[in-house]
Design a protein that fits this description.
The chain is of the alpha/beta class. The protein is 35% helix and 22% strand. It folds into three domains: 81 residues, MurE/MurF, N-terminal domain (Udp-n-acetylmuramoylalanyl-d-glutamate--2,6- Diaminopimelate Ligase, Chain: A, domain 1, 3-Layer(aba) Sandwich), CATH 3.40.1390; 211 residues, Mur-like, catalytic domain (UDP-N-acetylmuramoyl-L-alanine:D-glutamate ligase), CATH 3.40.1190.10; 140 residues, Mur ligase, C-terminal domain (Protein-Tyrosine Phosphatase, Chain A, Alpha-Beta Complex), CATH 3.90.190.20.
Length: 459
């Protein structure tokens, strides 16, 4: 979409400091990667200030949005001055979005946001030209940058929305103005930052103030209570589930060698068999959420089935790697108590052959809840059929302690403790063996993917 100087000034309330005016082919906040003809927003952050890289950005970019005047403004570039460059970025993204009368789907939740977004995109893009936010561009900076990529012929938008504090989902919705909102579940992600499950739920439910259609997990009782008791949502609700009656359901769920099979049922509209080529019950929920949105937008049930069956796992998100007789479940992208429980349940489900090996790294961002969360994890492991428990990090030592204590007189899993991923890699090849199924999971900064890579490349 062409960005004109006049539109930028109108959307941001800025002042043109130079005499020339031109159009731009896009926007950027990174002087290292800005393209020719793009507009540079000199955003200020906690650890950086875009104004320090203004000259570098203007060597390639066509202009810049700044919040301070300089006597040495280049004559051949467009310079617009605003009060707040971050707000200007957000306001202009909102301006572009409001030019488009198309479905915009916002997705939030404690777990499954990215996979749900990718599944939804894979279905919608078969029918519509669809925009999605790439990678982790799901916050107050990344989401507006994603909207800057809107083109006049886009027909749908899928946006993952992340948050760390109250008010953030509300602000993202103000920028993107979604027509549909998806809440995958309520779990312990960011518990240390928000302080309680109720606060997490309230922060996610901010989305309902802005959407006309809400797609909700009917099996998440805590979420549904919030919808009726806290928000009293008055728009259209579409529910999805496995266990409770809902609009979109998965029935006759079976684990398969490649993933899961189930009957996808749309209440009163039809039922169809789906063979999902990714593992995990949680991924069935993600598929149901995506299916519910697509069905509400008029996608036929057989189109949904085809797209879901063609979908494959993304790296580090319950990615299955077969290597020399060892099955590695690389789920190392991130971890919190609820996602850790879901992954462990998949590790010990019936039909898994050989030893079940759990390589688990610390769950971070839990603050004062961290000790209890790790001890509860250890107790959970003691009650599961885990054969080998490899604990990585200081907090996982508490999980080991609780696992041993809770097991009592029962047979213990083999237990190993390591301080970090590098420490594990020196010994992991001596621990795992042919026939094992190995789950690797932990918070992002624990770098657990290094362990998964070590196993899959060295055995």
């Amino acid at each position: 979409m062409t960005l004109t100087t006049d539109e930028i000034i109108k959307a941001t309330g800025g002042e043109l400091l130079t005499e020339n005016s031109k159009t731009f082919s896009g926007a950027s906040i990174d002087s290292r990667t800005i393209g020719e003809g793009e507009l540079f927003f000199a955003v200020r952050g906690e650890r950086f200030d875009g104004h320090n890289f203004l000259n570098e950005a203007l060597l390639k970019g066509g202009g810049a949005v700044v919040d301070s005047r300089s006597p040495a403004m280049p004559k051949n570039r467009v310079i617009i001055c605003v009060k707040d460059t971050l707000k200007a970025l957000q306001d202009f993204a909102h301006f572009l979005r409001m030019k488009m009368d198309i479905p915009v789907v916002a997705i939030t939740g404690s777990n499954g946001k990215t996979t749900t977004k990718e599944m939804l995109y894979s279905i919608l893009s078969r029918r519509f030209k669809t925009l999605k936010n790439e990678g982790n561009l799901n916050n107050h900076i990344g989401l507006p940058l994603s909207l800057m990529r809107l083109e006049p012929d886009h027909e749908a938008v899928v946006l993952e929305m992340g948050m760390n504090a109250p008010g953030e989902i509300r602000r993202l919705c103000e920028i993107a103005v979604p027509t549909h909102g998806v809440i995958t579940n309520i779990g312990a992600a960011h518990l240390g930052m928000l302080g309680s499950y109720e606060a997490i739920r309230d922060a996610k439910l901010e989305m309902l103030d802005r959407v006309g259609v809400a797609v909700l997990n009917a099996d998440d009782v805590f979420l549904m209570q919030g919808v009726t008791e806290v928000k009293k949502f008055s728009g259209e609700i579409i529910t999805f589930s496995i266990n409770n009656e809902s609009h979109v359901m998965a029935k006759d769920v079976q684990a398969t060698g490649k993933g899961s099979s189930f009957k996808l049922e749309f209440k009163g509209e039809g039922i169809i068999a789906v063979d999902l080529n990714i593992h995990g019950v949680f991924n069935i929920y993600n598929a149901l959420a995506a299916s519910a949105v697509c069905f509400s937008l008029g996608i036929k049930i057989d189109e949904i089935k085809t797209a879901l069956e063609d979908f494959r796992a993304f790296p580090m998100r319950f990615e299955i790697i077969e290597s020399e007789g060892i099955t590695v479940i690389n789920d190392s992208y991130n971890a919190n108590p609820s996602s850790m429980e879901g992954s462990l349940k998949e590790l010990v489900r019936p039909g898994i052959g050989g030893r079940r090996v759990a390589v688990l790294g610390d769950m971070l961002e839990l603050n004062e809840f961290s000790e209890d969360a790790h001890r509860n994890l250890g107790k959970m492991i003691s009650e599961m059929n885990v054969d080998v428990f490899i604990a990585v990090g200081r907090m996982m030592e508490l999980a080991v302690e609780e696992c041993i204590k809770s097991k009592g007189g029962k047979a213990l899993p083999e237990v190993y403790t390591f301080k970090d991923a590098d420490d594990v890699n020196s010994d992991i090849i001596n621990i795992v063996k042919r026939g094992d199924t190995v789950l690797v999971k932990g918070s992002r900064s624990m770098r657990m993917e290094k362990i998964a890579g070590r196993i899959s490349h060295a055995i």
